[in-house]
Amino acid sequence: MIKKWIATAGVSAVLLSGCSLLDEANNTLTYASEMTEFLNETQEFAAEVPALLENAASDPDMAENAQNQLQSLQQDIEEIQQIEVPAVAEGVHGTLIDYSTQLESGINDVLAKIETGQFDPEALLENTELLQTVQEIQELRTNIEQLGQ
Question: CA 121 to CA 43: how far, in whole Å?
Fold first, then answer.
């Protein structure tokens, strides 16, 4: 009788640990998918921001559009900073948080200049680390994509 109980407890422990491993694998895949989506959004932002800011300098309607897109990226950054991180991704996520904080700071600078109407799109792109930070974020893509495999 005791042997049956021990065998049942052992099988239960193995099954429960297997569920934990499965959960961790699912969390890692979800994380990799969400981070890849964020990387795609930042890459698209980097491609669009020069023209967006240039148009915003000459057209008040486009300035509002630029503000909306910048604020949308800020919201994405805040969501990334709050996401549940699987243990296997803690290192790359820490680096991503550092870069996203820099990106958020650059966005805040651009937004402040748009709001005051005192911005030169070319000077903003040359003097801010906005696009450089996006590039640094993109360099993490390989590490994040490997998590999903």
Answer: 19
